[in-house]
Amino acid sequence: MATEQQTTDASAGKGVSGETDTLTVTDNRTGKTYELPITDGTIRGLDLRQIKVKDDEFGMMSYDPAFTNTASCRSSITYIDGDAGILEHRGYSIETLCENSSFLEVAYLLIWGELPTKPQLERWTYDITHHTYVHEDLKHLFEGFRYDAHPMGMLLSGVGALSTFYPDAKQINDPEERYMAAVRLIAKIPTLAAYSYRHNMGFPYVYPDNDLSYAENFLSMVFKKTEPKHVPKAELTKALDVLFILHADHEQNCSTNAVRGVGSSDVDPYSAVAAGVAALYGPLHGGANEAVLRMLRRIDTVDNIPDFLARVKDREEKLMGFGHRVYKNYDPRARIIQGYLDPIFEATEYNPLVEIARELEKQALEDEYFTSRKLYPNVDFYSGIIYEAMGIPTDMFTVIFAIPRTAGWVAQWMEMKEDPEQKIARPRQIYTGSRERDYVQMADREGPEKIVGPPARRPKRPRRGA
Ligand code: SDX
């Protein structure tokens, strides 16, 4: 069975039977036959346009809502085999990277294509460490939010606002500007994330501490109080750095597709990454880790699991943290995260929700409804339990996902800008509406008095001066 993702094969052009790699298509409307070249297991959408009934037609298109079977680009950053549960970055397995690497080293690998040498990593780390501050005026932006504003809404605004502080980033073809945008985005996203937490809590903002590592500095900006220096427990820093690695990139997911789509208009990378933050916010994507914790709390006890799963099967609920567009096997990231649950509980405090999560997984994976649909735990199923054990509030979970994913978005954005085949993304459509209608004057408009929108609200009190 073809893997989800066709890797470029040097012997491309000859199929396994030695036949030329082409697809022969017969249009039964005309009896005409077409030979479509097959490259990397795909046909080019544009090759369909020659298939017409009448010569003056636009030609055939493919129709693939939500791009369930459409490759949008060529990429060498991340390889996923959903059936086998394999995830690799530039050819290195996620397991190897979690065991041997650090998040900043993985960020370098994603963006520049190779593991850095010692001097390269030192320079990369120095540059990122020394760009963690944000302009003081950004604090005024955060002060404009309600005390209970969702941190993802604040992060979305903060990242977009960065584009106004670095207008030179519009020179997207300037390698130095691209480098600085990559460094600034990776360096400043934790600061903006921490600001959103501190605003929610009513705490003063904590400035970055250049003595600390990337993960230590984020935890310091979140949790530092009156102590002169906040150095988090090594177990928490290690677990968070691994979680950052696990969330760094995941090929053409919803938010990366948003970054590539918005970035294809040649907008600056800050604005393109802000689009990624917006897409990640959704509960079907990055917002799932937050939704999992709320789901576990609603289930409340192991005894309630059978009833909950019955409601899922009746489609009254979704089993958040389960299922994946690509993985039809266990998400390897979920397996790695489970390995950090016990060390985190030893360093913090035991989170009883893990019992509900583990029993929920067990019962779901014994149920044909889930196994027949190949629904397994994904990266979001256990990650929130670790964040909660660290003392991070639930509505900050997706913000923590956005921090490392910024490195992946930057890598994908750069790859797109360097791809000669890419240009502004502008899909076509199947038009289903009316055509060539005559204008109807107001007096002639009849029909049911259908008022759209909710019933008009009567003002609770007379307007001032009424
Ligand atoms: C992430 O793409 C990425 O790589 C994303 C990500 C990344 O790193 O960037 O991995 C991060 O977003 C992980 C996914 C987090 N989201 C969730 O955990 C939310 C819950 N999951 C689902 O909403 C769903 O599984 C998706 C959105 C993740 C995938 O949806 P698909 O591929 O569109 O699958 P589908 O909706 O067509 O489902 C196929 C079947 C359906 O049943 P039938 O209608 O055919 O009978 O499976 C069912 C669905 O109803 N189903 C679920 C389910 N997920 C799918 N049923 C119950 N609970 C679920 N979670």
How is this structure best summarized?
This protein folds into 2 domains: 4-67, no CATH class; 111-420, Citrate Synthase, domain 1 (Orthogonal Bundle). Helix content is 44%, strand content 5%. The chain has helices at 94-100, 103-112, 118-129, 137-143, 151-165, 175-201, 214-223, 234-246, 254-263, 269-280, 288-299, 305-313, 332-338, 341-347, 353-365, 368-372, 380-389, 397-417, and strands at 22-27, 32-37, 78-81, 86-89, 92-93.
Written account of the structure:
- The protein is mainly alpha-helical.
- The protein folds into two domains: 4-67, no CATH class; 111-420, Citrate Synthase, domain 1 (Orthogonal Bundle).
- It contains 18 helices and five strands.
- The protein has helices at residues 94-100, 103-112, 118-129, 137-143, 151-165, 175-201, 214-223, 234-246, 254-263, 269-280, 288-299, 305-313, 332-338, 341-347, 353-365, 368-372, 380-389, 397-417, and strands spanning 22-27, 32-37, 78-81, 86-89, 92-93.
- The strands form two sheets. It has a three-stranded antiparallel β-sheet. Strands 1-2 form a two-stranded antiparallel ribbon.
- A hairpin with a 2-residue loop joins strand 4 and strand 5 (92-93).
- Helix 5 packs antiparallel against helix 6 (175-201), helix 8 (234-246) crosses helix 18 (397-417) and helix 10 (269-280) packs across helix 18 (397-417).
- Residues 1-12 have low confidence and may be disordered.
- Bound molecules: s-citryldethia Coenzyme A.
- S-citryldethia Coenzyme A is lined by residues 250, 253-254, 284-285, 288, 312, 318-326, 373, 375, 378-380.
